[in-house]
């Protein structure tokens, strides 16, 4: 399925209805599990169960065992991303 964007409205009881065409394209049925990811102002709805929280928890425990933290690792990743962005913009 290609990229698409659809505007939907939250209903009276804070319920969101996925448009029929999208449900059909993804073969979604009543009772199917969906994962809602909230990432810096963006909401992403994905069919199926996500293991992201479980993976983050395992990674957090492993880092804690080494005296590090998940937050520290994420900060380092962001800093590296910024540095990479600065380097690649100079190359262009």
Features:
single chain; alpha+beta; Pemi-like Protein 1, Chain: D; 2 domains; two-stranded antiparallel sheet; 3 helices; extended
Description:
The chain is α+β, with helices and mostly antiparallel strands and about 90 residues long. The chain has two domains: about 50 residues, Pemi-like Protein 1, Chain: D (Ribbon); about 40 residues. Helices cover about 45% and strands about 15% of the residues. The protein is built from three helices and two strands.
Helix content: 40-55%
Number of domain units? 2
The poorly predicted ranges are: none
Number of strands: 2
Shape: extended
Beta content: 5-15%
Mean pLDDT: 83
Under the CATH scheme, the architecture of the largest domain is Ribbon
Separation of termini?
Answer: 33 Å
Q: Within the CATH hierarchy, at the fold level, what is the topology of the largest domain? A: Pemi-like Protein 1, Chain: D
- H and E string: HEEHH
Please give the count of helices.
3
Pairing-aware structural class of the strands and helices? Answer: alpha+beta
Mind describing the biggest β-sheet?
Answer: 2 strands, antiparallel
């Amino acid at each position: 399925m290609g990229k698409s964007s659809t505007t939907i409205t939250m209903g009276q009881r804070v319920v969101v209805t996925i448009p029929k065409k999208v449900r059909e394209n993804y073969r979604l049925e009543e009772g199917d599990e969906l994962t809602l990811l909230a990432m810096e102002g963006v909401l992403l709805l994905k069919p199926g169960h996500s293991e992201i929280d479980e993976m983050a928890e395992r990674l957090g425990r492993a880092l804690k065992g080494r005296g590090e933290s998940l937050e520290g690792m994420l900060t380092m990743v962001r800093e590296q991303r910024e540095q990479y962005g600065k380097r690649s913009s100079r190359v262009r």
